[in-house]
Design brief:
Order of helices and strands: EEEHEEEEHHEHEHEHEHEHHEHHEHE
Bound molecules: NADP nicotinamide-adenine-dinucleotide phosphate
Distance between the termini: 12 Å
Structural class: alpha/beta
Radius of gyration: 20 Å
Strand content: 25-35%
CATH superfamily of the largest domain: Medium-chain alcohol dehydrogenases, catalytic domain
Number of helices: 12
Number of domains: 2
Length: 340
């Protein structure tokens, strides 16, 4: 907001994507900042998260889905996602202070008018934005509440270089895993995962059988599978499951990032007999839906855990549409964040 004129810039869906979402499907608009109501904060955004789920919600047939915290978008709608900003104005007695940071759900714009009830106070800083906006939280909740990890477990993380995956491998290790394997698409990313993220091995999708690569990387089988992908990777993990294996299913990128069009239908063929014989648990899980109360525990835990917050940070609101496209194309690593 230019305080003199009360204007702001925001990004809206211009047109439904045809296949992969393109930067030209989005548009940046300069507009009047909405008037703040009696319970609203005016926030200058500093960072916001880019989520690949935005592609799914920009589909013409997108529907509200429980567990997906994004509403379906229509052309002309403003985009939104987790953000951190500085309070410029707040109602007296609201408990917030001008000049402090808050997290809130209205990213994809430079200034936001946000209901105080949707804001969480983060103090004056300095802050690690990725700890609040990133998916270390999701991975931590999945590995402490979705399933329980045990000392000595062999863990497989699909999309191990992604926003959730780049944290899940590290967190699994801190929680006692003895061997951690992740999947990705390119040798470059695989090298980065073993060098920077602490994976013992990385396997490559679209470069030969996942089942064979997983067998080679985990010859004694897999105890825990953190799944962001579904499809062939879920089937391979089921084949490699050890007695008592625990699978936590967080996402289905095979459907969400399907080249032909985003979808919420992610079929997979599993050998159910083997699941029964090996006493395998499969749990579908959403961190925000199932364990929101554990977020403060994550914030305290990550301070001690010395994690590497893997981020692709893009500068400037105007570059956010390109960042969404690149994230969906698999060109970026870790959390994708815009510094406004
Ligand atoms: N349950 C929950 O609490 C929760 C919370 C947030 C998000 N989610 C869901 O979890 C999943 C992962 O989210 P994220 O934000 O961490 O995404 P992400 O893993 O960062 O997704 C982007 C990555 O997906 C990989 N990819 C691209 N196309 C693919 C394809 N056709 N098949 C398989 N992988 C492909 C690429 O990585 P590579 O190049 O390395 O393969 C790309 O960099 C999503 O489905 C998301 O909706 C769940």
């Amino acid at each position: 907001m230019d305080s003199a004129v009360g204007r702001c810039r925001e990004i809206r869906l211009r047109a439904y994507p045809d296949g992969m979402i393109q930067p030209s499907d989005l548009t940046i608009i300069e507009t009047a900042l909405p008037e703040a109501g009696p319970n609203d904060l005016v926030v200058r955004n500093r960072w916001f998260r880019i989520s690949i789920s935005t592609r799914l919600m920009a589909n013409p047939d997108a529907q509200a889905v429980e567990g997906i915290p994004f509403p379906a978008l229509r052309p002309g709608d403003r985009l939104a996602d987790g953000a951190i900003g500085e309070v410029m104005a707040c109602p007296p007695g609201s408990g917030f202070e001008i000049g402090t940071f808050v997290s809130h759900p209205l990213g994809w714009r430079d200034y936001a008018v946000v209901d105080a009830g949707s804001c969480v106070a983060l103090g004056r800083g300095p802050i690690e934005p990725a700890a609040y906006l990133g998916h270390g939280w999701t991975a931590y909740a999945a590995l402490t509440r979705g399933i329980r990890i045990r000392r000595g477990d062999t863990v497989f993380v699909s999309s191990g270089a992604g926003a959730i995956g780049s944290m899940a491998g590290q967190i699994a290790r801190r929680l006692g895993a003895s061997r951690v394997i992740g999947s990705t698409s390119t040798p470059d990313k695989a090298d980065w995962m073993t060098a920077e993220l602490g994976y013992d091995a990385a396997i490559l999708r679209n470069r030969g059988s996942i089942a064979d690569q997983l067998k080679a990387a985990a010859p004694d089988g897999v105890d825990v599978f953190v799944d962001m992908v579904g499809g062939e990777q879920l089937a391979a993990a089921a084949e490699a499951a050890r007695e008592g294996a625990r699978f936590v299913l967080l996402g289905a990128l095979t459907a969400e990032l399907n080249v032909a069009g985003a979808s919420i239908v992610a079929p997979v063929q599993l050998d159910s007999f083997q699941l029964i014989l090996k006493d395998v648990t499969l749990r579908g899980y959403s961190a925000d839906r199932d364990s929101a109360e554990a977020f403060p525990e994550w914030i305290a835990w990550q301070r001690e855990a010395r994690l590497h917050f893997a981020c692709s940070t893009v500068a400037g609101l105007e570059n956010a549409p390109g960042a969404l496209h690149d994230a969906c194309e698999g060109r970026l690593r870790g959390l994708v964040m815009v510094e406004v």
